[in-house]
Specification:
Blueprint (H helix, E strand, L loop, with lengths): L4 E6 L10 H19 L3 E8 L4 H10 L3 H18 L6 E4 L3 H16 L3 E11 L4 E2 L5 E4 L8 E2 L16 E5 L7 E10 L4 H10 L7 H11 L10 E2 L1 E3 L13 E3 L1 H20 L3 H5 L6 E7 L3 H14 L7 E5 L2 E3 L14 H6 L4 H11 L7 E3 L1 H30 L10 H11 L9 H5 L13 H10 L3 H22 L1 H4 L6 H22 L4 H11 L30 H11 L16 H6 L13 H5 L3 E11 L7 E6 L4 E6 L7 H4 L3 E5 L5 E3 L2 E3 L2 E2 L1 E3 L4 E3 L14
Parallel strand pairs: 1-2, 1-13, 2-3, 13-14, 15-16
Antiparallel strand pairs: 4-5, 4-9, 6-7, 6-8, 9-10, 11-12, 17-18, 17-20, 18-19, 20-23, 21-22, 24-25
């Protein structure tokens, strides 16, 4: 096998939040692939970085009273801690706020400008009149102009996948202040993605095998047919105030974060090259024969499969060999939810004492080479790990190691009978149809033959190469089942009781531990920490892929100690409970994106004594008597009812978190109290135009209502 030169990246996590189990799908998927390639003996470099620029970083730093640089440094340490906790091993983990990334951002921009692919023009952009700042795409929300989905971001729709300009949104609002944004003109720089040089290149590149079939089809949809051009020029600048790289010769203008974020791949690799003496150009020059792979989520395919390769191609750099997109993670069949305790951070998982390799194994068992979503079913998670890893795989070592240590001074047999050797060769080397007659195979009586999967070790290697981890693990567990049948057939515990059977016992246990070693080779990309412990137990050097075919004979092993424990269901319960969002009122944070309904859902009593207020403070609140004209369930909401309230002069719509306490039919016609001067807020289910008042003590929830004679619209004083 010729040695390959491979550079691998994962998408850059944004430095404005914690790593959660959804993020880990990608990093575990990538890490498995990288570890497999390194076991094959290839030169592989795996780099990543925190994505650190943009308005969200600036606003969060302001709210915490620190500099953006201090914020991103702190978050980077947290991210590195979480990745290390799940054995995701980068060759370099860096930051996009680096001199290397600045250099290549300016270099690419300059080359695109020289090529005539950068233009500037005045554009109308949403401006927050309260915060006095232009709003980035992700800080504008509204209704998707294509499918009408509510509460969508200003750059793309999570419901239908459409990409659009923020000004295309219907009923937009600022996610910073809640204010209705106004349009304001500003001079912006654009990358001319609509230029025929970009379009013609992308038509060929996206259909050349660089993308999965589903991704290529999506690109065809976005590009349009051969006789049309559906691509628009790409706005690559933002106005101050902004945290990022200022554009050369353009004071007050900054590179949009999506321009310098993928350049962060180059910046992180440049840092590694500087530290390790690697030739950067060998991997990034136009005629490079090295391989470049990006692992990403399907939600950022548009940026990686259109903008990024077009930038690279026209700036004189190589383009990716392949872009591998994966789907989203659901938990128990639903989106991750804080209220259900299924929005689980990496830190929380580890703090509860759960083994990170349990999750690595389960994700691998679910992953394939497509963009399908995967589901973390917590009950199935425990059952599969306990059955496969403990009941089948680790069980092999525990059933044989004791006999070797106690009866044979820890030394494996010096040789094996032909039938025993044939059994191991049939498992890991030869092309044998085991399923045709498992009993004959276990006894070492078979003929080498051509079967569809070819030689077993190569077959499993091909599955890893193609990212078909689920298929690979099914094959590995099938082989594990065969070895367990071997154990049950020869019954070493009975051989140990019979006189004159020491030779037979020695050989049988040696076969079992050799099979266990080979299975460990196959599982090592998924379970690196466990594999390291197995290597210590077997007293061997770190396993490489070809070791699946080799035999340990006349070799001394170390005393066996238990290698992995079962998942206790109580651990899963504790994890969910620890991740469940508190129902007590939270102190509003600056720039909070809370909705009225969230206030309504958090009306359980608090133990904190409220601060005193003046009468002037109280009179600022406009409390009105309201009649509930209509009440109905809200599709897709766990706690909300939609109320139509008559306040005398008009009717208002309010979403209230009282579903658990009230039948909507019994609320119709009832009087209640509402806050009438609360600023309207857009939420996922519609516009909430106020708040109804209720009391509760954890044992019940009770709407407030005025005495008889009160009429809708009366002010409460």
């Amino acid at each position: 096998m010729s040695k390959r030169k491979i550079l691998v990246t994962s998408a850059l996590p944004y430095a404005n939040g914690s790593i959660h189990l959804g993020h880990l799908v990608e990093y575990i998927q990538t890490d498995i692939w990288v570890r497999f390639q390194k076991m094959q003996g290839h030169e592989v470099h795996y780099v990543c970085a925190d994505d650190t620029h943009g308005t969200p970083i600036m606003l969060r730093a302001q709210s915490e009273g620190i500099t953006p640089e201090a914020l991103i440094a702190r978050v980077q340490k947290e991210h590195e801690r979480d990745f290390a906790g799940f054995h995701v091993e980068f060759d370099n983990y860096y930051t996009t706020h680096s001199p290397e990334t600045r250099h290549y951002s300016e270099d690419i921009y300059g080359k695109l400008k020289t090529a005539g692919l950068i233009t500037s023009r005045a554009v109308e952009q949403f401006y927050d009149p309260v915060k006095q700042m232009f709003l980035p795409d992700r800080f504008i929300k509204g209704e998707c102009p294509k499918c009408g989905a509510k509460d969508q971001y200003g750059d793309n729709c999570e419901a239908c996948g459409a990409a659009y300009a923020p000004t295309d949104l219907k009923n937009p609002y600022s996610a910073v202040s809640g204010a209705v944004p106004v349009k304001k003109a500003s001079e912006h720089f654009f990358f001319k993605l609509s230029d025929s040089r970009c379009v013609d290149f992308l038509r060929a590149w996206t259909t050349s095998g660089t993308l999965q079939t589903e991704a290529a089809n999506k690109m065809r949809e976005w590009l349009g047919e051969a006789d049309e051009n559906k691509l628009s020029d790409w706005d690559i600048s933002r106005d101050a105030p902004y945290f990022g790289f200022e554009i050369p010769d353009a004071p007050g203008k900054y590179f949009y974060v999506w321009l310098d974020a993928p350049v962060g791949y180059m910046g992180s690799f440049r840092k590694l090259c500087n530290d390790k003496g690697i030739d950067f150009d060998e991997f990034w020059q136009k005629d490079s024969t090295a391989e470049l792979y990006h692992f990403i989520g399907k939600d950022i395919l548009y940026f990686h499969a259109l903008f990024w390769p077009a930038m690279l191609e026209n700036a004189g750099y190589r383009t990716p060999t392949n872009i591998y997109a994966h789907g989203f993670l659901t938990v128990n069949g639903e989106k991750m939810s804080k209220s259900r305790g299924t929005f689980i951070t990496a830190e929380s998982y580890l703090q509860q004492g759960l083994n990170p390799e349990w999750l690595r194994y389960y994700y691998a068992a679910k992953l394939n080479s497509t963009m399908e979503d995967i589901d973390l079913n917590l009950e199935d998670f425990a059952a599969r790990v306990n059955s496969d890893l403990v009941g089948k795989y680790i069980n092999l070592a525990s059933r044989a190691a004791g006999f070797i240590s106690k009866r044979f001074d820890g030394k494996l047999a010096a040789s094996l009978a032909p039938a025993r050797k044939c059994f191991l060769e049939g498992l890991f080397v030869k092309s044998v149809n085991i399923a045709r007659d498992p009993d004959e195979f276990i006894q070492g009586r078979f003929t080498e033959e051509d079967v569809p999967d070819g030689r077993r070790t190569k077959y499993i290697a091909d599955l890893y190469e193609q990212r078909k981890y689920g298929e690979a693990l099914r094959e590995i567990m099938y082989l594990t089942d065969i070895v367990n049948k071997f154990v049950d057939y020869y019954k070493p515990w009975e051989l140990a009781k019979q006189n004159g059977q020491d030779g037979e016992l020695h050989e049988v246990c040696t076969v079992i531990l050799n099979a266990f070693k080979s299975l460990t080779v196959y599982l090592k990309p998924v379970l690196p920490r466990l594999a390291k412990d197995v290597e210590a137990f077997l007293n061997i050097e770190p396993l490489v892929w070809e070791d699946a075919k080799t035999l340990l004979l006349d070799h001394t092993i170390s005393p066996y100690s238990h290698l992995i424990t079962r998942i206790d269901p109580k651990q899963i319960t504790a994890l969910v409970e620890a991740s469940t969002e508190s129902l007590k009122p939270a102190t509003p944070q600056p720039h909070s994106q809370q909705r009225h309904a969230q206030h309504q859902e958090n009306i359980v009593e608090t133990t904190t004594q409220p601060a005193t207020i003046s009468i002037d403070d109280f009179t600022k609140i406009d409390l009105r008597v309201a009649r509930i004209v209509n009440a109905e369930h809200v599709e897709g909401a766990d706690k909300l009812l939609k109320l139509t309230l008559d306040i005398g002069t008009e009717q208002r719509t309010v979403f209230a978190g009282i579903k658990s306490a009230y039948d909507p039919e019994k609320l119709k016609g009832r009087l209640t109290v509402m806050v009438a001067n609360l600023a309207p807020r857009k939420m996922k289910f519609g516009l909430s135009e106020g708040m109804v008042l209720a009391a509760g003590d954890g044992n019940g929830l009770y709407l407030l209502g005025p005495d008889e004679g009160a009429q809708p619209g009366m002010r409460i004083k």
